[in-house]
Design goal:
Blueprint lengths: L16 E8 L7 E7 L5 E4 L26 H25 L5 E5 L5 H8 L3 E5 L3 H11 L17 E7 L8 H11 E12 L4 H6 L13 E2 L2 H10 L2 E8 L3 H12 L5 H18 L6 E8 L2
Parallel strand pairs: 4-5, 4-6, 6-7
Antiparallel strand pairs: 1-2, 2-3, 3-8, 7-10, 9-10
């Protein structure tokens, strides 16, 4: 199996890299992967992940529920309840930050299509792209969405979209620099880029260390903080216009992290830690388990 070897930091270009942690793939394989960090800017990434063409098998598990619709078990029930709430919140955030109620939107990594469907029903003209064929089929059957494969990103003309969203997708994408360049080209000059990613400087990340569920190796290649994603965006012609915490993520991530640690009563312990994380992020939103970042093009 061919593996990706990262020799220079994609954020600052430094070659001063150090190993910081060993994490386990708790979902699919049980394999271990090394996390490395840039000594100059602090950006963290997973070293030695399978290349894009070969990583598919690490997603092929019913436990990876972002591409399923099961409600079995307490954690899955919480996931679906929170998702329903967050769909409305995301739609309102898009309209508020974009200063418009409708427009042209591209949702990259749309998964099973819930967000894309939400925006269509609110009057937006939506294009949706998803790598997973089962997820695309789900979106078609349940929402009537014609979700395009990943290759469709090459077909969109420059300036095609008023808003581009990536909800927990950026951390999966191998060709990070190329992706940001492409996003810049596809947006209109006053367009909006909205990126949601886990925050590895969060309260729960510090508490759980190698068991933190949002490291999710090898599926998560990049591990962002508010500082490193802002630096990366700036390198590719964007400025950060706003950032918003995703406090609910701490509950779900903490439950999974407790499960990874083999804790008894992982649901209750996860709820307790999630509550601590919630209060931690109230005073300092940059400590939130996940963050939503809003970017605009530099002028």
């Amino acid at each position: 199996m061919e593996k990706l070897s990262i020799n220079a930091c994609p954020v600052c270009g430094s070659t001063h890299l150090k190993r910081v942690m060993t994490c386990t793939d708790f979902y699919a394989s049980g394999e271990q992967f090394e996390l490395y960090s840039c000594e100059d800017c602090g950006f963290t990434f997973t070293q030695g992940v399978p290349v894009e063409a070969e990583i598919g098998k690490y997603y092929e598990t019913p436990d990876y529920i972002s591409h399923t619709d099961t409600r079995k078990g307490a954690m899955n029930s919480v996931y679906h309840y929170v998702r329903s709430y967050m769909l409305g919140r995301k739609a309102r955030l898009v309209a508020k930050e974009a200063h418009r109620k409708t427009g042209r939107l591209l949702d990259i990594g749309t998964g099973t299509g819930y967000f894309a469907d939400t925006m269509v029903r609110r009057g937006w003209k939506v294009e949706a792209v998803e790598k997973n064929p089962q997820a695309r089929e789900f979106a078609k059957e349940h929402f009537g969405l014609e979700v395009k494969p990943e290759s469709a990103l090459q077909e969109f003309a420059p300036g095609s979209f008023d808003v581009i969203t990536l909800w927990h997708v950026m951390e999966h994408l191998e060709h990070l620099g190329e992706v940001w360049q492409q996003l810049h080209e596809m947006l209109t000059e006053k367009g909006l880029l909205i990126v949601a990613v886990p925050n590895c400087s969060s309260y729960d990340a510090q508490r759980y260390g190698e068991y933190w569920a949002a490291y999710d190796v090898p599926r998560h290649l990049w591990h962002f903080t508010p500082g490193t994603i802002q630096q990366l965006a700036s390198r590719h012609g964007f400025i950060m216009a706003a950032r918003h915490p995703m406090p609910f993520d701490a509950f779900y991530v903490s439950m999974l992290s407790e499960k990874h640690r083999g804790s008894s009563c992982s649901f209750l312990k996860g709820m307790y830690v999630g509550t601590l994380a919630w209060f931690s992020a109230l005073g300092r939103k940059e400590r939130s388990s996940s963050m939503i970042y809003v970017f605009r093009k530099k002028r």
